[in-house]
Write a structure and sequence with these properties.
about 350 residues, mainly beta, Cathepsin D, subunit A, domain 1, 2 domains, eleven-stranded mixed β-sheet, eight-stranded mixed β-sheet, 6 helices, 30 strands, about 40% strand, disordered N terminus
C-alpha cells in the first residue's frame, strides 16, 4: 500500500490545500503521486484577508517535485514562502513559521471554532490564528511591487507541506487582484502586471466562468461517461493548490477506467484515511470542452464534497497544461486559458 502525505484543505469555510510532493512509502520518497486531504472549518468567524496593493511579475516557482506555484515573500521578520491556492478560502501558515516570525497567536475557542476532515483527530486539536507582517514581492523597475498587509492566517500545528513551504495564500487575498500563471514562459504575475501580460497575448483565450461558494471558486467540469453516455457538466472546486484531481467514488464510477484502482493511505491533520488512485478517462475543464486525455485521480470520501456540493477538486493535473489568467477580482469571476 502506498502512503501519501496530506494536502490540507483548511478553510475559512473551506480552506482547500491539496499539496504537492512525492508520495511517502514505508522507507523512501518517490515521485509520481499527490498529497491530498481536507480540513474544513464548520463554524467560526472569518479571518481578515488583508489589503493587496501594487503588482509584481516574478519567475514561476514550483513546490518541490510538483507543479503548484509558490510565492517567495519578504517581510521585516524574515522570508515567507506560500503556495498560491485559489482553493483556500483564507491564508494559512504552519506553527513553525509563526514561531520563526515571532507572531502573537490567538487561540480559537473550540466551542466557537471547529474543523472537520478525514480521520478522527480534528476535534482534539487546538487551533490558533495570527496576524502576519506585511508581505512583499519585488516589483518591476520603477514599480513598488505587490504587497499584502494586515492579513490574518490560520495557524495549523503540523500540516505536511512541501519542503521549504510555510503555508498557503488563499482566495480571500487572491480575489483582490488579477493573477497570471504562465507555465510555458515560467512567469507569474499579480495585479496590473497580470493585465499587462494579458495584452501581449495574440490568441483569444478560452473563457471558463467561475462561481463563488463558501469563499472558494468553482469551475464547470465536463464529464464524458463510460459506455457511450452523453457528456454532462458538473461543478468542481478550482484549486491551484492541489497537485492532482480528487473525485468522489460516485463520479469515478461514471468514468472509463484505464487500469484497476490501487489502494493508498492518506495522512492529514485529522488522521489517516484510506483512499484509491486510478487512471481514468472522461474529464476536461469547461462546459464546452471534449475530454481527450486520461488523468490519474485520487478517489476518496471527503467532507469538502458535500459542503461545496461538488464531486471533484481540480488541481494542477489539468491546470498545468495552460497559461492561466485568474480574474477572481471580477463579478462574476472567470478563468482565462490559453
Amino acid at each position: 500500500m502506498r502512503v501519501l502525505p496530506p494536502s490540507c484543505l483548511p478553510s475559512l469555510l473551506v480552506l482547500s490545500l491539496a499539496l504537492i510532493g512525492a508520495p511517502i512509502t514505508a522507507a523512501s520518497h518517490a515521485r509520481g503521486a499527490w498529497r491530498g486531504h481536507a480540513l474544513i472549518q464548520t463554524r467560526g468567524p472569518s479571518l481578515r484577508p488583508g489589503s493587496a496593493l501594487g503588482d509584481s511579475q516574478v519567475p514561476l516557482e514550483r513546490a518541490e517535485e510538483g507543479d503548484t506555484p509558490v510565492l517567495s515573500f519578504r517581510s521585516q521578520r524574515g522570508p515567507v514562502r506560500l503556495l498560491l491556492d485559489t482553493g483556500a478560502a483564507s491564508t494559512m501558515v504552519t506553527s513553525a513559521v509563526a514561531q520563526r516570525l515571532g507572531l502573537s497567536q490567538r487561540r480559537l475557542a473550540p466551542e466557537r471554532f471547529s474543523l472537520a476532515g478525514g480521520g478522527v483527530t480534528c476535534a482534539a486539536q487546538s487551533l490558533f490564528s495570527a496576524r502576519l507582517p506585511p508581505l512583499q514581492l519585488p516589483g518591476e523597475p520603477g514599480r513598488p511591487g505587490f504587497r499584502l498587509a494586515g492579513a490574518e492566517a490560520l495557524v495549523i500545528p503540523g500540516p505536511a507541506l512541501p519542503r521549504g513551504v510555510d503555508g498557503v495564500l488563499g482566495a480571500s487575498a487572491l480575489r483582490q487582484v488579477p493573477v497570471m500563471v504562465d507555465p510555458v514562459a515560467n512567469v507569474l504575475a499579480l495585479g496590473p502586471a497580470a493585465l499587462r501580460w494579458r495584452q501581449t497575448r495574440v490568441a483569444s483565450p478560452r473563457i471558463v466562468p467561475l462561481a463563488w461558494r463558501r469563499g472558494v471558486p468553482l469551475l464547470p467540469l465536463r464529464v464524458r461517461p463510460a459506455a457511450g453516455g452523453l457528456p454532462t457538466t458538473l461543478n468542481a472546486l478550482a484549486d491551484t493548490g492541489a497537485e492532482g484531481v480528487f473525485l468522489t467514488a460516485a463520479l469515478a464510477e461514471r468514468l472509463t477506467p484505464l487500469h484497476p484502482s490501487q489502494p493508498a493511505r492518506l495522512v492529514g491533520v485529522c488522521g489517516w484515511q484510506e483512499v484509491r488512485r486510478q487512471h481514468l478517462f472522461g474529464l476536461a475543464i469547461g462546459a464546452e470542452t471534449l475530454p481527450t486525455r486520461s488523468v490519474e485521480a485520487i478517489i476518496l470520501t471527503n467532507p469538502v464534497f458535500p459542503l461545496l456540493e461538488v464531486e471533484a477538486i481540480v488541481g494542477q493535473t489539468l491546470l498545468r497544461e495552460h497559461r492561466q489568467l485568474w480574474r477572481l477580482d471580477l463579478h462574476p469571476p472567470r478563468l482565462e486559458l490559453w
